[in-house]
Specification:
Length: 492
């Protein structure tokens, strides 16, 4: 079912009406009427990615606000009286949860501010070295002028319901273009992470990057490698490696192929993942580049018909990342471990949409060629189940299948993939027919073996696997039969 935002975004209504619908329907903004009542001179604006997403018909999870004409020493106690607030001093920003919204995402409430390079000769192109000054009286247009891209440099004033767009961000939003505010070279020199943000937004939004902005990005990409001297004498990167990993994964999860092409063309891939960039210069036996084979694999994993074969709507981020590394000729798992470690690919929590399960990634890459030497039909049923009836086992079959299609080669391994798929489908069908789940419940556990008087030890696993083999082969079906099997095995 369409959300309200998607519904009205497809209608011919003005941007102001779109923003008004969002404001009126967002419970985290009801407190603004109280602020207006206490401070008639106050101005409150939706800004940045919030108003951008609203105008695109997306429902923003994060709400960014700018409050003018209320000094920070006056605003702070007011917010404490009306909710939970935490002040982040350097940027003049509050994290605020209004009363009645305890389980909601905090709002970001900022005072208008300016950002300048304090010393151009010493500036390392990191945000932390910018000279930041916030001022409650600063005109909103000056606050917008220090932002990164035009689509993020719009504001919607809540009281009068007016859109402020001094840099034609709405025009770029309609054109699907990411353009720097004012001079691209200056924007990237001030804060090199803006280049990463441009690449990520292009993938997330499906936008292009405006020509002058793109040229400046390519010309300044090496700023991401600048270092500075820490107070203890060590050299550290101005742009944290964690930030590089974060922006890459967010873009890659949204649009894998677009992300790789952008990172390749601007040389970011060469800087941070040279093992992948080198694939562009290597040829497959059919004269297609290895990089193109890699992209073909990802393309297969995004096809609805292919995904339907495995009963999923979307490939997991971990599987897509494994596909990206599937044609690397060196030790794939070792290279993946290096990249994951260097760029903190483990940084997202379990419930995050771009979460990478790094250990599963290494496992997928280590086992993706198993069928070149192993026939799945020869595996014990219990071993096959443990390997392929889990989520990562399904991902392994999908990876094997997609790479075999992309490679274009018919081989024994490719035939074995189809055999494994049939075995997996049969096991799942049997389980659903008997229990309604994807796996049959076990007839015996380790606790059951103890009840039978068997001391814990290395033989437990073999006994349990024996029982599971016979159960999956439909030779036993009850706990009593399983216990008799165990007793017989012990006698032997």
């Amino acid at each position: 079912m369409e959300t309200l935002l998607v519904h009205y975004a497809r209608k011919s209504i003005s941007p102001e009406e779109r923003a008004s619908l969002f404001v009126d329907g967002e419970p985290r903004l009801t407190w603004t009427s109280l602020l207006y009542a206490d401070f008639p001179q106050a101005e409150i604006f939706l800004v940045g990615g919030t108003i951008r997403d609203v105008l695109l018909g997306r429902h923003p999870q994060d709400i960014d606000l700018v409050v003018r004409n209320v000094p920070v020493d006056v605003l702070e106690p007011w917010l404490y009286r009306h909710g939970a607030a935490e002040f982040v001093g350097r940027f003049g920003t509050f994290k605020f949860v209004p009363h009645g919204c305890t389980n909601r995402q905090p709002l970001d409430i900022a005072l208008p501010r300016t950002e300048h390079v304090f010393d151009p000769d010493a500036h390392a192109s990191g945000r932390k070295s910018l000279d930041v000054k916030f001022n409650s009286d600063l005109p909103i247009k000056e606050d917008l002028s220090r932002r990164d891209f035009t689509i993020n440099a719009m504001a919607f004033e809540l009281r009068n319901r007016r859109l402020i767009d001094p840099f034609l961000g709405l025009q770029d939003l309609h054109a699907g273009s990411i353009s720097a505010v004012l001079l691209p070279e200056q924007r990237f020199f001030e804060d090199a992470t803006r280049m990463l943000r441009a690449l990520r937004l292009a993938s997330q939004l499906g936008f292009g990057i405006e020509e002058l902005t793109w040229r400046a990005l390519k010309a300044n990409i090496d700023l991401l490698q600048k270092t500075t001297t820490h107070e203890n004498g060590t050299h550290i990167y101005v742009v944290p490696r964690e930030m590089i990993g974060r922006e890459f994964l967010l873009g890659f999860n949204a649009h894998p192929m677009h992300t790789i092409r952008l990172w390749l063309e601007c040389r970011a891939l060469h800087l941070f993942m040279p093992e992948l960039a080198r694939l562009e210069g290597l040829l497959h036996e059919d004269r297609e580049t290895i990089l193109q084979k890699t992209l073909n694999t990802i393309s297969v994993l995004e096809k609805p018909s292919f995904l339907a074969t495995y009963g999923v709507h979307r490939a997991t981020p971990t599987l897509l990342l494994a596909a990206l590394m599937s044609f690397v000729e060196d030790d794939k798992a070792t290279i993946a471990r290096r990249i994951c470690t260097d760029y903190y690919f483990h940084q997202f929590p379990n419930n995050h949409h771009a979460r990478i399960r790094c250990e599963d990634l290494f496992w997928l890459l280590s086992h993706m060629h198993d069928f070149e030497t192993v026939d799945p039909a020869s595996l014990r049923p219990s071993k096959f189940e443990n390997m392929f009836l889990t989520e990562r086992g399904r991902d392994l079959l999908m990876l094997m299948h997609a790479t075999s299609i992309a490679s274009g080669r018919h081989s024994v391994a490719r035939e074995r993939i189809h055999v494994a798929e049939r075995i997996r489908e049969r096991m799942i069908a049997d389980a659903r027919m008997h229990e309604g789940a994807d796996r049959l419940p076990r007839l015996l556990t380790g606790s059951d073996l103890q009840v039978l008087g068997i001391e814990p030890g290395p033989g437990y696993r073999e006994l349990l696997d024996l029982v599971r083999d016979m159960q999956l082969s439909h030779k036993i079906e009850s706990k009593l039969e399983a216990e008799e099997l165990v007793k017989l095995a012990l006698k032997k």
